[in-house]
Design brief:
Strands 3-4-2-1-5-6 form a six-stranded parallel sheet, sandwiched between helices. The protein has seven helices and six strands, in the order βααβαβαβααββα. With about 250 residues, it is α/β, with parallel strands linked by helices. About 40% of the residues lie in helices and about 15% in strands. The chain has a single domain, classed as 3-Layer(aba) Sandwich (Undecaprenyl pyrophosphate synthetase). The protein is globular and about 60 Å long. Bound molecules: farnesyl diphosphate.
């Protein structure tokens, strides 16, 4: 993501249609607590919301949908909850991969694979390989993902190339670093949605979010649906994106 100085989505003149939507699916635990249910049930219902949103995404003209499903910092949660989240990912891939593939969804995974259980790595690779030629929608799953870590990994690769004499340090710029992020071919998100009323990025796509529009919605993730996505897109369409330039209509 985000290798271009001018975000690829700027090339689109359909300002009402975000090509890349990224979602921080927050509030599963609070959704469950409000109903006297275990947190795991909130996460399970979160997967149902995810299915709804993947189905809706293409209908709404979205080309790339990135979801934050497990952060580098989520390791600080109790082991039982981590187990629940990993179990849900396993089940999501085992149960939904065929449907995603049939529907033309290409699955990509960003984040750190090192340290993940071998069976999880195999499932992630299987999902990516089975769907690699699909073009209807890119579903980018951020799993064991942290933006600082992603940027640090990219910086380390550039530094190594310079240390090996394969790169002139003066060639290290934003474009070069962007090429070493986890999905350099995916344009920056036009719209980042966070549910549950929290208003922060929490180490999600911080490099790529430079010119993203941020929409914070009060509902918890398990309640999110196509109508909520349409409403966030309508809010996005009311925004004026200037990318550091001047207003298009007034020139001021
Ligand atoms: C935030 O809610 C959500 C997460 C940490 C994980 C999101 C995961 C899913 C929606 C399901 C798993 C995804 C896949 C692809 C299988 P929270 O637990 O922080 O909620 P809280 O802030 O209310 O406690």
């Amino acid at each position: 993501m985000s290798n271009a100085a001018v975000p690829a989505s700027q090339a689109s003149d359909r300002t009402d249609a975000p090509l890349h939507v990224a979602i921080i699916m927050d509030g599963n635990g609070r959704w469950a607590a409000a109903r006297g249910l275990p947190r795991a049930e909130g996460h399970r219902r979160g997967v149902e919301a995810l299915r709804r949103v993947v189905r809706a995404a293409h209908e709404l003209g979205i080309h790339h949908l990135t979801i934050f499903s497990f952060s580098s910092e989520n390791w600080s949660r109790p082991a039982t909850e981590i187990g629940d989240l990993f179990g849900l990912l396993r089940r999501f891939i085992r149960n939904d991969l065929a449907t995603l593939h049939r529907d033309g969804v290409r699955v990509r995974v960003i984040g750190e694979r090192a340290g993940l259980d071998a069976d999880i790595c195999s499932l992630l690779t299987e999902a990516e390989e089975l769907t690699r030629n699909n073009t209807r929608l890119n579903l980018i799953v951020a799993f064991n993902y942290g933006s600082r870590q992603e940027i640090a990994r990219a910086a380390q690769r550039l530094a190594q190339e310079a240390a090996d004499g394969k790169r002139d340090p003066s060639s290290i710029n934003a474009d070069a670093l962007g090429q070493y992020l986890d999905a350099p071919d995916i344009p920056d998100p036009d719209l980042i949605i966070r549910t549950s009323g929290e208003q922060r990025l929490s180490n999600f796509l911080m490099w790529q979010a430079a010119y993203s529009e941020l929409v914070f919605v009060p509902m918890h993730w398990p309640d999110f649906d196509k109508a909520a996505l349409e409403s966030a897109i309508a809010e996005y369409a009311r925004r004026e994106r200037r990318f550091g330039g001047l207003a298009a209509k007034t020139g001021s």
